Amino acid sequence: MDPDFSPGGGGPSFEFAFNEVNFSDRELRIEVVAGDDDAPGSSGAGAGGGGLADWARHRKRRREELLKEKESTTHMSDQTNCNEVEAEECDAYEENQEEPVAMIEESPPDVGQDVGDDGQGIDSSWTVVGTPVLRVKTIYISSAILAAKSPFFFKLFSNGMKESDQRHATLRITDSEETALMELLSFMYSGKLTTTEPNLLLDILMAADKFEVVSCMRYCSQLLTSLPMTTESALLYLDLPCSISMAAAVQPLTDAAKDFLAVKYKDLTKFQDEVMNIPLAGIEAILSSNDLQVASEDTIYDFLLRWARAQYPKSEERREILSSRLLPLVRFSHMTCRKLRKVLTCTDIDHEQATKCVTEALLYKADAPHRQRALAADAVTCRKFAERAYKYRPLKVVEFDRPYPQCIAYLDLKREECSRLFPSGRIYSQAFHLAGQGFFLSAHCNMEQQSTFYCFGLFLGMQEKGSMSVTVDYEFAARTRPSGEFVSKYKGNYTFTGGKAVGYRNLFAIPWQTFMADDSLFFIDGMLHLRAELTIKQP
């Protein structure tokens, strides 16, 4: 029966038995050959030098080379699929690193001796033309301990050493893997590592993946997660070779990298120039966050288009990336209707997909509030419908053009949002348009006109656009308990010029404490529902 290879680094320590002849039943010959440095910290002889930046630059160059090769291949179409490029990159990595090479020997060299570059003591049958063996290291091992920790070694010892006189195995590795392999073998005995240096930990992580030591992969992941993270290291963790990044043992590390990027760049507007240079995996991590501090979802959509056009100049490739990777990150349901119209005419987006996204967004906007909250809270649909930390609150807007230009704007505020307004805060809505003019709503906590108590105020403003003036009839209303119907609270007529606002400082004619009380008439299921109706009757 096969042993249990369940992940985990627990269990007894056999550190005392590592490379000790009295506690070993095999000898492992490690042949070190020259290899293409394609691992973090690779600088020859497994020194662990070079750093994360070097490896990141190397992998970036490899991506660029793959893209150039793809573009110059005449028998392929111009259309480039990003997923194919990433798959090729992963294949290229695996070709360089090679699968672990294990061989059986009957006449091993002296145990514990390193054999020099002259090749003495190396069986010539194992020497590959064009890949000279730099040195050979032989250590004592316990087949039971290694087999218990690794399916690779279990298969090696159970299938390759059936005869009792074959007590020796040979592994061939590149010089950049040597230090990592020795750390890995030691870990399989002791359950611990001697380093917390990020470059070497990444080398060990890759060696653990190569030799199927899941417990070590998890341990490296935990150590790397506990170390201070930078944008460079986070992007590197998201760019690990395919076989590693897909492993469940490394998931906490990639999750931590995504969280780091999402937190660091949550104010997207502030870091917009820097984020424009972040690769696709980082963009996905940032834009998956609910905590992005942006003016509105329109801002995210506009940013993604700029980023995609800068990173993918070829239209077919750009359309593919937008369709498969980026548009699913956009929450169309919280975009303005004005921007949704532009989505339908965007040439970078497949028209069928654009129509589907816009239709779904409009259906959401027309849905009942309790249904909207259910969709936003559902684990399956929350990615599409959950609100982010918008600086300007989304609105529902219904427009009419007959008999007069008219619109009705609905603004919903959570109780906790209103609570944070005290004593002098403001919340602004997204802009909405009527007769070509941009308007917005703003909710305030302010002093009552006589300066005797705080109260809730609602104002209507017009965006600054030239010196044009427009006269508007307006009415504010709010849903109230127990009926749940909208009740008119204030109406008036005002001639707007750019930047001006009009409203009522005490919309509900009650003090702030009464407005926010648990038995307040204006919060229904924790939500304040406001309505503003605007009409332009002048010619």
TrEMBL record:
Transmembrane segment boundaries: none
Pfam family, one: BTB_KLHL33
Disordered: annotated segments: 35-60
Compositionally biased tracts (Gly residues): 43-52
Domain called BTB: residue spans: 122-197
CDD domains assigned: BTB_POZ_ZBTB_KLHL-like
Keyword Transmembrane attributed: no
Entry keywords, A to Z: Ubl conjugation pathway
Pathway: Protein modification; protein ubiquitination
Function of the molecule: May act as a substrate-specific adapter of an E3 ubiquitin-protein ligase complex (CUL3-RBX1-BTB) which mediates the ubiquitination and subsequent proteasomal degradation of target proteins.
PANTHER family, per the entry: OS02G0260700 PROTEIN
Name this protein carries in UniProt: BTB domain-containing protein
